[in-house]
Write a sequence for this structure.
């Protein structure tokens, strides 16, 4: 007989029997109303905390996705540098690693979407519960005002059973969200460790010291060349650059700041424009 | 009658749909009893999509209990089994 009842009716009965057990424990109907209202407010706080927790997890994922994207961009630059230095082999390795980083990024993207969905669900649950708690509060005051034992009991039972069902639903939703954020935290921790260890650099080509190191050296020497060029440029322009503050003297800047040049301040701007 | 989809809220469904929903629910229940994962998944999805398509949302400030409660989308068979024996509910 019970086996043929259907899932939906059975679940509904389970929810109702939970509400009835809680009702039976209470002797004074007014106590039921006030006590239940307190519990509702507590659950509302809990579900809001749940929403905040999921949001925190989502933001952490966002951060990791940014880091992973930077990693991927860096590998892309390294591939370019390697190629322009005629090292196709290094470029190939860098691109392989970039592909790995991209695949991690896709995975993180999937997790992000699922966490976002969880956040939306929990936000919706929180809003629905809020509406029901508000309705319950109004109902509670009305019932109290028109209180005549037997009649009130029926109305209390109905309101209580209705809100209790919502609370059970929200309670389950919070639990699911908690489970999910716990899983995400564990995975996020694993990815943080992965990135910190530098293992992402090594996923394709093994030991860190060979190709990545060479890429790093090339990256470094490329950087040195760039720095050199920048310094050369600066040196060439150094005279006019020093003059700029000197011209400011006429605009009321303190003379002592630029005293080495301020004696020439009348001539130097023209020299600066000339270069 | 009022039907609750766990995690989504309550829907008002015309009483005339009861028989159809019962049939779909019987498929779901049979799948759970048989421990048939594929059958369970398709029966749950069918039931959910049918209820969503014929149901009208109950105003959120209504306090009426639901006649039928259906597990959330993506629920596992283990979760549904728990809901059917009250292990799934948080005490209190």
């Amino acid at each position: 007989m019970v086996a043929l009842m259907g899932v939906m009716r059975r679940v509904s009965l389970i929810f109702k029997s939970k509400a009835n057990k809680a009702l039976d424990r209470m002797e004074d109907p007014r106590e039921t109303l006030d006590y239940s209202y307190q519990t509702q407010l507590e659950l509302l706080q809990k579900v809001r905390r749940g929403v905040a927790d999921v949001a925190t997890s989502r933001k952490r994922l966002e951060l990791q996705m940014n880091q992973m994207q930077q990693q991927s961009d860096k590998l892309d630059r390294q591939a370019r540098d390697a190629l322009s230095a005629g090292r196709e082999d290094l470029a190939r390795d860098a691109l392989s690693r970039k592909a790995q980083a991209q695949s991690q990024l896709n995975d993180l993207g999937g997790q992000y979407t699922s966490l976002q969905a969880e956040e939306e669900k929990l936000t919706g649950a929180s809003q629905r519960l809020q509406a029901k708690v508000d309705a319950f509060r109004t109902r509670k005051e009305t019932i109290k005002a028109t209180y005549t034992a037997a009649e009130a009991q029926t109305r209390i039972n109905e309101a209580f059973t209705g809100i209790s069902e919502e609370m059970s639903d929200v309670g389950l939703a919070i639990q699911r969200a908690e489970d999910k954020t716990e899983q995400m935290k564990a995975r996020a921790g694993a990815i943080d460790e992965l990135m910190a260890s530098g293992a992402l650099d090594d996923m394709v080509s093994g030991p860190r010291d060979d190709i990545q190191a060479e890429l790093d050296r090339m990256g470094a020497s490329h950087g040195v060349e760039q720095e050199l060029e920048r310094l050369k440029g600066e040196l060439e322009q150094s005279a006019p650059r020093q003059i700029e503050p000197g011209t400011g003297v006429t605009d009321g800047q303190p003379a002592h700041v630029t005293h080495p040049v301020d004696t020439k301040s009348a001539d130097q701007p023209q020299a600066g424009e000339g270069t | 009658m009022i039907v609750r989809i766990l995690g989504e809220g309550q829907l008002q469904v015309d009483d005339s749909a009861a028989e159809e929903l019962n049939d779909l629910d019987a498929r779901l229940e049979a799948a759970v009893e048989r421990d048939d994962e594929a059958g369970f998944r398709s029966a749950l999805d069918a039931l959910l999509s049918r209820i969503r398509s014929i149901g009208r949302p109950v105003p959120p400030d209504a306090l009426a209990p639901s006649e039928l409660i259906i597990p959330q989308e993506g629920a596992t068979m283990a979760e549904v089994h728990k809901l059917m024996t009250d292990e799934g509910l948080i005490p209190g």
Summary: Chain B has a mean pLDDT of 90. Chain B touches chain A through 38 residues (CB under 8 Å). The two ends of chain B are 27 Å apart (CA to CA). Strands of chain B lie at 2-5, 9-12, 56-57, 68-70.
